[in-house]
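hiii so my PI (J.) wants the whole complex modelled not just the main chain, which honestly fair. so below is everything: four entries, each one labled with what it is. i double checked the lines twice but i was tired so who knows lol
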Amino acid sequence: MLEFTCLIPLFTGIIAMFMPARLGRIILLVTAVLHLQLTVLGWFGKVTPSLPGYFAAPPDGLLVLLVTSFIFLFISVYAVFYMRETEMASEPHYIGATLFFLASMSMVALADHLVVLWIAIEATTLMSAPLIFLTRSKSALEATWKYVLICSVGIALALLGCFFIVMAMASNHLDVGITFSSLGQVAEQLDPVWLKAGFIFLVIGYGTKMGLAPMHTWLPDAHSEAPSPASALLSGALLNCAFLGIYRSHQLLYQAGLGDFSSRILIGFGLLSMLVAAIFMYNQTGYKRLLAYSSIENMGVIAFGIGIGGLATYGAMLHLIHHSLIKSALFLSSGNILLGYGSKLINKTGNMAKLLPKTFALFMAGFAGISGFPPFGIFVSELLIIIGAFQQGNTISVTIFIFALILVFAGAARLVMRMCFGRNDEEILVPESYGRLLPPLGLLLSSVLLCVWLPDTLYEKILSAIATIGGGIHG
Amino acid sequence: MDTLFVSFVVILAGGVMALLLARRFNLMKLVTVAVMSCGCGIGLVKSLSLLLSQAPTAEKSWAWLHFFELTFKVDSIALFFLIPLFAVPPLALFYSLQYMADQQKRVRVAVNYFFFAILVASMALVVMAANMITFALAWEIMSLSSFFLVVFDYQVKANRQAGYLYFIFAQAGAMFLFAAFALLYSHTASFDFAAFASVPEKAKLLIFLIAFIGFGSKAGIFPLHIWLPKAHPAAPSHISAIMSGVMIKMGIYGIFRIYLLLDAATPIIGQVVLVTGMITGVLGVVYALAKQDIKQLLAYSSVENIGIILIGLGIGMVGVSEQNQAMAFFGFAGAMLHLFNHSIFKSLLFMGAGAVLHQAKTKNIDQLGGLMKRMPITGRTFLAGSVAISGLPPFCGFIGEFLIYYGAFHGINNQRFSFILAILAIVSLAVIGGLATACFTKVVGLAFLGEPRTEQAARATEAAWGMGLVMIVMAAACLVMGVVPEPFIRLAFAGIRDVGFTAGYDTQAFLAVVRQLSQAILIFLALLALVSLLRKVLYRGKEIGSGSTWGCGFTQPTVRMQYTGTSYAAEIIDFYRPFVPVRRLYSGISRIFPGKTTWETGVDDVAEINYMQRLIKPLLQFLNSLRWIQHGNIQLYIAYIIVAIIVLLLFL
Amino acid sequence: MESILSLCFAILIAPLLPAVIQKVKAFFAGKQGPPLLINYYTMIKLFRKGSVYSTSTSFVFRMGPVVGCVTSLMMLLFFPLAGIKPLFSFHGDVLILFYLMGLGRFFTILAALDTASPFEGMGAAREAFFSTLAEATVFGILILFFRITGSLSFAEFFSGRHVISLSSEHGALLLLVIVALYIVMLTENSRVPVDDPATHLELTMIHEVMILDHSGPDLALIELGAWFKLLFYSAFLSMLIEPFHLESALLNSLLFYAVVCFIYITIGMVESITARYKMNMVPKFVLTPFALVFFVTILTMELVK
Amino acid sequence: MIVLSDFLLSLTLLSVLLSLASNRLMALVKIMAFQGIVVSLIPLVLEQHQDLAMGSILMLQVMILIKGFLIPGFIYMALTKIKIKREIEPIIGYHASVFAGLFFILLSAFITDRLDISLPGGQVLLMITAITTLAAGLFLLMSRRKAITQVIGYLMMENGIYLFGTALAKETHTQYLVEFGVLLDLLVGIMVMGIVLHNINSTFDDVDTALLGQLKD
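here's the output for the full assembly
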């Protein structure tokens, strides 16, 4: 029955497409709440998937599902107020698309079958394309085009990867269902060469979606051109889903005893992503692009952490949760900034501390959080990743990791300070409103809360998720 | 120990109250200052009594996020660091009552108080932390809150840049710390500080050096100091006082703590610390001499004093590795005492500078002058602070240096390299002392004495009474600590009680020396009084004339002809030329009837220049040269994917 | 009792000795020179006068001479003149004494800057600079002495088990130290070739230009302080030079003051036969003793175990 | 049967080369329709699919319908509706493209040889065709300026992957999921792309991707 997390938004989405905007908003919020409820039920095992060959509820999937569902609720609340003030022409489209998007993401989180996962991830691309496209400006068009094309190419390659994994099974004359759970049980008998080839294609394919360099090229365009609530969803939820695909594949390789191979690739991609993000962050002109590159960097951090293994995987999982919370809060506040200044350019903003004091507080807090300052959770996760990396003896890579973190921080801090404290004598177009302030605040506070008190269930879920790739707090 | 936590809660409550009462400006200030001072007072009393009662180290811990623990432990070192940490903030807060007078900025002031409270609390937590997670957590909160304090006056571009630079250094330093901790964890598999000693000897040096960079960037060792002379002038003066007086000492604390925890046998650690201290001390004071901005000068002087403290620590460490108990004991004790003294007189000086800035609207020495007559209290207390910071008796600065000298002289009888180090330490202390004298005679002589160089300076009046009162209290403290040093020296001794190697060192002989020292100072003061009396007698009933200064033949000397700070320092700076590059801008003279020409000099920080030229510029150029990656061409984006696949398939 | 007598004598004789220098210089110039008691006359004259203070000055200007004089006096208080136990002495007194000298300098400089004069700052800057260099040398000497005697007190340098003396086993090293200390003395007391007390061009003066605005008793205090300081340095030197320790305190004192006199005469000779250095040469000159002392100290690594 | 399958595969290869050489959009669309049909037929003639289930046949028909008619038709409609120049305007010239195509065939033969996988009899050519089609699709994506040619390139790439899938995966494992997935993906993907294309055309007056290079750093 957990499949209803996909079906409910799908149906309500269809309905909302044909409803007036006012009703659509209610549908959006109701669906978000329902979805969260269902997710929580699934989380505690009250509801389980009913199509075992295709869907399953492993801990990693549930984790991603919960994060997605949680931030979706906040983003929906924000979106309702955001749309009221921007008078978005195609509001039903937005609501419909965002619900479809939620449906596809839920499907990713629950997918167990290789191809179902693949279909779901491709579906997220297609469902989120309208979201990016919503403003219909030239640049939005371009961003959408790049997004759809590059991701489709990437995902197509991932399909090839799926075939290779099937081949790994077929060439050794095994005959089990091609679900991650059943493959995992026979992992050691799979043909290693095909498995590795499959992993490469899966990493490239899903990595395109996740924004790992050098396949990240669409990401800054898409995330910056989408309306802010959509950007928040893309960054906070979608990237996790793509990551889940890579995570599952890595899991498979680990179970097959090829963990070293996949770890090295993940570490490489992680570091490359962080460095590439650093290149474009220090001299960025648009603040949404800045946040987008920051997402690339953070995905790099997660990939790095997973690749390192041991303690770092726990850090990576925490990083995933907190990055989603904080980054979506940042994108939401960037929506306020966009409304306030009417421009996405950093040069056109400035003096937020005076002009938009509350948004400033949120944005600054979010920046501090994303840079790894307590009381936000990224502090813990980055510390754990560094500790884990040293523990595993990856000295060189962790040196690059730290270097990249410093570089990214230095680049971003300059621009954030420019936005918050720089000179600006212009008037604010749309003043702040609580409807657009409370959701990001809520997201930030939840990150703080999770850093102060992590519920046992979450902790255990993370542990059981990372146990499958040899991670653990004592590893 | 619970009392200490109570004091944190009170301090934080004060900070939150500031936010809540932000709309009622004066009430907010009063309440916040009162509550926070009360909290600091509780902490001060408690830590003093714990330190003096020789209570055994207490420990307390909470579970956090399932497998971490937040462990706090107070041993004598922690308690010693807690004393200035709780003693200085109330004074700074009291000062801020009248310093932060702008009603327009009331929200910002409230936020400032809020972060002030967090800063104080987090610093105390840093000191009390007993495992690396706790330490890192408190450390990062400290960095973050102090960043917000620095950017208080964000409208000024220089302040934003300063804040930025500080932010970078704080974060980069923290990264180094994390790396050091991670390395430790990889050897011990425990977050607990107590496990550090079990690290293999080979790894200890590396770990220490990494941590040294991390802590050093906070303390402001050369060449990681460049944020300091920018951030301190940017912050409001009472914040500068806290940052310079207390916060940068956290870096020292870290260095000392990790040294003790590692308990390494290698002598290199001590040598590195000592040599860094010497370089930091000498160059810090030379730069201080070269600067014309009072607060910048004071910031560089903080660098210098960090150098002196490090010399003390270094001597102690060399003493430990040489098995020279006296040397180790006095080195550590001297470092502790100097650190304590510095937190007092540097805060005093920053507050004085703040008063000057507040009243005369400029920090530039070359635009000040004659303030002693216009701001008598600020002037006199600043003079006291200057004497103290130059390390001259009868003020407290001398006492700390005396201990360090004492330790260093005990190292003279060592052999070979550590002998040479001891010599160098003594000589550099002497040179630092001489240069500090030059530096602070410059500030006092040019900013407070003579004639005002600008209209603003001439119009300056005495600062508000509260600010004056705080400065008087601190100046008096400097004098008392200088004249009756024994209790404070005992305090420093108590502070290093828990240092294993020096424990049990017999201090009676030295305390006798201290009493005699105190006598000597009293004799000096008595003679001073006597000669002053004699002078009074000699002048009695005589005609005291007054006129203008003799201009050596100039009949109408103007105030612009006074010696300036730049010229005062020029010769000494010139002597240190390779390390202190002087920038000269001269428009030159052309044509037969030349127009207006300009001549400008300034001193750039050699570390800053090198960072810019050797590190930042090439790095940015390199990054820029890679920007083509995101060229917008979708065909090539797809090519990237293909290339990535091909490269990966090669690994197959 | 001995100590008090010795101190009083030193204080009394301090103004006399500089007149010796003037006599020597006059002799070299073929002149008769002022009477030996000239400085006492000057003192009395100055004490009788009043003062004119610049309107620019503050209390610091009046404090300068007092502090300067007292700090110099402190040196004599702690120094074993002619080997006689000083009034006060403790382990570590040299440190505080030299720092007190620093305090005196601090206030002299401030008093100079207080006048807002275009020239006095110049002298102040030079004073601050050269004395920093000289201070390094002094501490170098202290290190050496500590190495030899294990003590940090003037009194202990010249009494006890390891005495600093030309006749001891480290005598050879001491020769270099004497040269170094002599140069320090010339520097610290503003003598040729570092400074010329007789010069009349403000631009080239160091110490004298700093006290241009002082007059009357204030000036007298400054002069007194300068004489005490010179006496201290020559006493220090003569304790190093003169290796004898006679039984009788009186004889000892006679010998001691004879050597002191001799040092004053050499100062006069140096002033007569050398010209002062160009200002930019001075730092090099002042660094020479530091190099000497450092060299000697390194040598002790082998010699003193 | 072997002959038939080889014949179809050769036709596919031919269509690949033709598509690389074609300089007219219309022609290209027709070639793609042809290729779609041929590719869909291939599973039918492969050895291990001898005993066709009812489902497979149904799937096959849907496949042909979509790949051969629906999608090309859709693109054709888009082409006629939007005012674009009908030349392809390649970045890499036609001759070079054809040579590239030949090179791809050689390369894929080489790779297939090196892989030395135990393919069920006679599928060497299938592998070669699959890799060539995939590579040529990617090549079209990279070497053509018009957005619409990129869609076609994508289509071709999907054809290649589909061929791969039929070559590698056994029916029992995939259970139409591959076909279903590919079709759904293609259909919706092309629809979305088409809509975007349409909008690009109405916004920019052309679908040249040179116009789509504004977002960069």
